[in-house]
Every structure is written in structure tokens, then in C-alpha cells.
Specification:
With 210 residues, the chain is α+β, with helices and mostly antiparallel strands. It has 5 helices and 6 strands.
């Protein structure tokens, strides 16, 4: 029967003599290493898992109360995917008339929330988002699976199907408590935020002033 030496320092000395690597001492405590975290996403967008708070969302989207339907972005992969949340409360103005005795979030507004999620993806791809808008050009395969009511939290997923400089196609889904509430395929286009004057319009105004 052989002798087993359990002393760690002796084990390491013996390992060095026989040419095996010595055992490393376990590190004490946990140290956060952001470079190590990002390395796990090698080959993927460096902006995956970014989150945007409401102030950052206001800096990207031109929408304001009562039509801003994104409260927070909890996951973002540039040019590919975005996950956002919308907290639905009884204070939403549309519940006053839709419907007074049975409040339901209008389905078109659920789709609008998905479109705003897609708009953030598209605006992050252009160099001058402050001067641009993202507008609807098409809605396909829209389906409403369950009602959205006060107290629900919409979990909105927007996945890019195709994305060009000015046009994008987005697959949107909205979940409540892990169950699909709404889905649709959205086509959007980037347009100038300021209306362009029609040719000759400036001259006509000048003549009228004279």
C-alpha cells in the first residue's frame, strides 16, 4: 500500500520534479473581468446585451408621451436583434375609451411598440439619427393571440430579416408572462425628419410676399 501525501505544497514540489504542472491555488473571491465577458461573444457584435434606459431611448426615438411605447431595452445586438419591455398600466390614456368596463391595449399599439423596437435597430445603423424618422411601409402576417391588459409587461422581441441603408424588414413578437400575445412582420423606411420643400415652392412664397 503506497503512502499518499495530502499536503498541497509537497504535491506541487513533487509535480515539479516529475515534470507535471503544479496545481494553481484557487483564487479568493470573484473579480469581474469585462474583457473576459466580451471574449465569450467572439465573432458576434460587440454591442450584444447592451441595455438602454429611458433617457437613451428618448435620445434615439422622436416619440413622446403618450405615444412612446418602449420603457427599456434589455438586449441589443447591433443590426440583428433587440429585446425591449413596455410596462402597461391603468394610467395609459387609451384605456379611457378602449374599453371603459374591460380595458384592453389596442392591438395596433402593440404592433406600434414592436415597430419602435425595430426603429431603434435601424436608427443605430445610420450616422445622423437626429435628422431621420423611421416610418411604416408595410405590415404582414399580423396575429393577435391574447389580450394585453393593465398590469401586464410586454416583452417585445424584434429580429432583423433584412436590413439595407434606408429600408428594413423586421419580425416582431410581443409576449406576456412568456406567452405570445402578438406577432407581425414589419417593413420600415428611414426618411428625413424635416419635410423637404417642393421644387419652386420657395420662389412662389417670395412672389406672394412681394
Amino acid at each position: 500500500m503506497g503512502f499518499v501525501d495530502s499536503h498541497p505544497s509537497r504535491k506541487n514540489k513533487y509535480a515539479a520534479r516529475v515534470g507535471r504542472p503544479a496545481q494553481k491555488k484557487p483564487s479568493r473571491g470573484f473579480r469581474y473581468n469585462p474583457e473576459e465577458r466580451l471574449s465569450s461573444y467572439a465573432g458576434r457584435s460587440v454591442e450584444i446585451c447592451m441595455t438602454f434606459d429611458i433617457q437613451e431611448i428618448l435620445g434615439l426615438l422622436p416619440h413622446r408621451y403618450p405615444f412612446l411605447l418602449i420603457d427599456r431595452v434589455v438586449e441589443f445586438e447591433r443590426g440583428k436583434r433587440l429585446v425591449a419591455i413596455k410596462n402597461v398600466t391603468m394610467n395609459e390614456p387609451f384605456f379611457q375609451g378602449h374599453f371603459p368596463d374591460y380595458p384592453i391595449m389596442p392591438g395596433v399599439l402593440v404592433i406600434e411598440a414592436m415597430a419602435q423596437a425595430g426603429a431603434i435597430i435601424m436608427l443605430k445603423e445610420i450616422s445622423d439619427p437626429d435628422t431621420k424618422l423611421v416610418v411604416f411601409t408595410g405590415i404582414e402576417k399580423a396575429k393577435f393571440r391574447r389580450p394585453v391588459t393593465p398590469g401586464d409587461q410586454l416583452h417585445i422581441e424584434a429580429d432583423v430579416l433584412s436590413l439595407k441603408t434606408r429600408v428594413g424588414r423586421i419580425e416582431g413578437k410581443a409576449f406576456v408572462d412568456g406567452k405570445l400575445a402578438c406577432q407581425a412582420t414589419l417593413t420600415c423606411q428611414v426618411v428625413p425628419r424635416a419635410r423637404e420643400a417642393a421644387p419652386g415652392a420657395g420662389e412662389a412664397r417670395t412672389e406672394a410676399a412681394e
